[in-house]
Amino acid sequence: MITAPYNFVPLNDHIVTPYWGSSISHDKPFIDSQSGVLNVEIIAKSPIFVRNGEIRKKDKDGKDIISPDFNQFRSNYFIPGSSIKGMLRNFIEAMTYGKMEDKVNDVKYSVRDFNNNVIYPKSDISKDVQCGWLRFDGVKYFLTPCGRPGRISHKSLDLISGPSKISEYYQQSSNINSDKKKSAKAKYDAFPFKKDGYSFKYESVDEPEDGIGREKYIIDETGQGTKGTIVFTGQPGVRKEKENQGKQYEFIFFNYNNPEIPLEKDEEGKPHEIIRNLFHAYYDHDKGQQKDDWKWRKAQLLKGKSIPVFFRLKDYKKAPTANNLLDIGLALLYKITYNFSVKESIQNYQKSEKLLSPDFADCLFGYIKKIGKNKFDSLKGRVMISHAFAEEGSHPLPQKTDVLGGPKASYYPNYIQQNIKDGQGKISGNYFTFKDQKGRIRGWKKYPVRLSDPVSNPAPIIKGKANEDVASKYSPLAKGTKFTFKIAYHNLRKEELGALISALTFHGNEGYYHNIGMAKPLGYGKISLSIQNKEKDELNSLLKEFECFMNYALTPKGISWIDSPQVKELFSMAKPSEKGDKILKYQKMDMENRINDFNQAKKDSLALLDFSKVVDPVIISGKASAPEIEQKKAFHTIQASYYESLTSKGKEDPTLPYKLSIENELMKIISGQKEILIEMLKEKRDQLKQEKLNQIAQKNLEIDQARILGKRSNSINLDSVKLNSRAFDSLEKAMKIFQVKFKNGPLEEEQDREILKAKLKEIFSVLPEKEKIKWKDSIWESNQYYKKISKWIGDSETKKVLTEN
Asked: Which regions form coiled coils (predicted)?
């Protein structure tokens, strides 16, 4: 079973958008308008820590100095109102069937998973990848394609690598005993010899490739070979020469003088999607996860230098263009981009006709959304939350040091909904990922509260020393600390105020807790909230209004709000339990001791179980009776019709049809002229583009024809065929190299035929007696030797060879 300190409220396919959303105003009150202030008390049920929000200073190396102190102002500890607002908004989004697509960054994740050939087919990727040079001119990016990369061995590079031999250097484990030493940058630093200006020829004319299109070269000292540049990539492991293990080849980017491909910005001025995905794949958004090679290559890019990259195409029958690029990376087997972004995977599941309408959380807290090019829609929130100041005399506990690693949304066993077939989390079939149309994120992420005191997650030990670079220092306030704050609300409907109270009090149910601040995965920040200035009957009345509305809104789903999967999962994670504590553990990854729970879970086909399936069922008390719910459904049906009529009143304007007809006629004229100009520009662009593509195609055709001609002009060489009981299999493998010679019929050159017949005679002499009988079988339809040899020398000569030997 996978354990994790987090879990998810399932993503809802149905979206609830309050019918009064478009009529919300700060100036025109609702009929049942609710305005006022809630006085709220927070009690920390475990030690609590909220990071100091002051502007960070830099150390001598330019790194942020992160304060371990609790957030404070003039020695008064407090929780910022924005933190409380974020906690409550996230809770309300989950419990009111909110929209998620506008709550996430629209990025495409990348994957390099050597344990899952379905998601990451290494051999196919290796076969398809092309190479080129990427540069940035300060405004946009350009890619110069170089076709398929060649390969050159470390032993060949020894001739030019200088005093230190590269083939010997990487046989020493001490030279690659850290990520930094394994990097391409470290390799360039260790071997700074000139990389460009060389000519290259095939390592072996008879076997120029390794069977999957990877051509091997050596330096051509005559200078007559193909020109190119040597490119280093990282060294993943030690080279074991005797076992023929470990990386021993680097790459050659050939100088084909192909034109640059401009990667234009999109309509919003963002870099081309391929560039955005590249930066995201190498954690440009998270400095803590960036590797040395990305920092180095990015710095070169920003200085205007060209950097070597590898890329795939959407359609290999077409030339490389900005629209035909699939993804890009810094190594041959780079992290490939998924088919769907996070936002797209949500849109594939959360379908609604009212995606532009505000959901419940939007109505309460406000929003600003882009609805078109340079067009935005916004609403100011009607709920304002003050800072929550701690009571006097509060003091921090001794400083703690723990690893608070955040989960990665690209880890599909946990973050993508899977088909789970048993109570241990075993999946049925293959994993779903962002590669699949049906792949969807698990939902709203939450950190379940613990029953026990907080646990620790110490820094990993590397070579006997704690690696505190990955740990965080913090000084929490003690369990039992009290905070007070105010929530001011203006012009809310009763259903809206009821939703806010429901989020604060878990719908009036006891024994449930929120958590806030840092170190929530370890059990810090468990809090209870209580409203101090409202009577229980008034609160229950408002909770009833909210509950009835949610039951009305979920009528199309045919489910009760209290019994819905979203509410059950949300409340399950808010109730502490011993069973829950047992599974709130980080997966381990200790590379020094070869422990990697993340990879092992994939090998075992496991996925993260819903939290409610592991703990005891929760019992949630509602506030509304069945008759009250039915009565309110009728009320909300009438109300919804009324608000819909308000939004359509503009249609009653008698001048509106005339205005619309004039606007339509003008738009038709403008659109017609625009289309003519666009078509003219497209034709000219397509003409220039086609001319350029034809030039590239002709160049590539000439290169291919020259290679084929070289293979045809050389006689076949069968010296590699080993004379033993499997000699004929060895012959077949050797003949594959020369298949261009008999692609359109038997071998034409007499010399080739004589070489092959002589080799066949030698092979016959070493065949077992049983195989010799099969060899001479005159029933040609069943003679397997006849079928294979006749492709090479024709029917009559094959029969002659088989009967004479």
From this structure: 671-698
279's tokens: 């930066």
Q: Tell me the C-alpha distance between 797 and 757, whole Å.
A: 9
Q: How far apart are CA 620 and CA 667, in angstroms?
A: 57
Distance of CA 732 to the CA centre of its chain: 43
CA distance 149 to 127: 10
The answer to whether residues 235 and 247 touch, using CB atoms and an 8 Å cutoff, is: yes
Can you tell me the distance from the alpha carbon of 562 to that of 547, in angstroms, rounded to the nearest whole number?
8
Tokens of 257: 């003088």
Q: How far is CA 231 from the centre of its chain?
A: 27
CB 401 within 8 A of CB 459: yes
Distance CA 684, CA 382 (A): 54
Q: List 47's β-bridge partners, or say none.
A: none
d(CA 26, CA 33): 11
Please give the pLDDT value at position 61. 65
Q: What is the spatial distance between Cα 449 and Cα 524, in angstroms, rounded to a whole number?
A: 9
Question: What backbone phi and psi angles, to 5 degrees, belong to 94?
Answer: -70, -40
Torsion of CA 775, 779, 782, 783, to 10 degrees: 20
Burial 283-321 (b: 16+ CB within 10 A, else e): eeeeeeeebbbbebbbeebeeeebbbbbbbbeeeeebbb
Pairing mode, if any, of strands 216-219 and 150-153? parallel
H, E, C per residue of 594-641:
CEEHHHHHHHCCECCCCHHHCCCCCCCCCCCCHHHHHHHHHHHHHHHH
Rounded CA-CA distance 726/730 in Å is 7
Sign of torsion, CA 183 189 195 200?
negative
Q: Reduced to 3 states, what is the DSSP secondary structure of residue 700?
A: helix
Q: Please name the amino acid found at residue 770.
A: K
For residue 477, list its beta bridge partners: 48, 396
The pLDDT score that the predictor gives to residue 413 is 94
The CB density around residue 342, as the number of other CB atoms within 10 Å, is 22
Instruction: Give the separation between CA 618 and CA 610, rounded to whole angstroms.
Output: 14
Q: Are strands 198-202 and 325-329 parallel, antiparallel or unpaired?
A: unpaired
Q: What was the pLDDT predicted at 352?
A: 66
Beta strands in 647-692 (DSSP E): none
Tokens encoding 433: 């990922």
In this structure, the chain runs to a length of 805
Q: Identify each DSSP E strand in 179-275 by its residue range.
A: 198-202, 216-219, 226-231, 249-254, 261-263
- Strand pairing partners for 696? none
pLDDT digits (tens, 9 = 90+) for 98-145: 999 888 877 889 999 888 888 998 888 988 999 999 999 999 999 999
Which two tokens mark 732? 């077949």
Cα–Cα distance between 346 and 341 in angstroms, integer?
Answer: 9
Q: Let me know: does 122 contact 333? Beta carbons within 8 Å.
A: yes
Q: How far apart are CA 499 and CA 738, in angstroms?
A: 75
Q: What is the pLDDT of residue 658?
A: 45
> Cα–Cα distance between 705 and 482 in angstroms, integer?
81
| Whole-number Å distance between alpha carbons of 313 and 334 | 14
What is the DSSP-derived secondary structure letter of residue 702?
Answer: H
Residue 652: helix, strand or coil by DSSP?
helix
* Cβ contacts of 328 within 8 Å, gap of 6 or more: 134, 143, 274, 277, 278, 309, 310, 311, 312, 334
DSSP string, 720-755: T---STTHHHHHHHHHHTTGGGSTTSS---HHHHHH
Instruction: For the beta carbon of residue 616, count every other beta carbon within 10 angstroms.
Output: 12
Chain centroid offset of residue 121 CA? 17
Nearest to 497 by CA among 364, 632, 622, 386: 364
Which residue's entry shows tokens 């009728």? 634
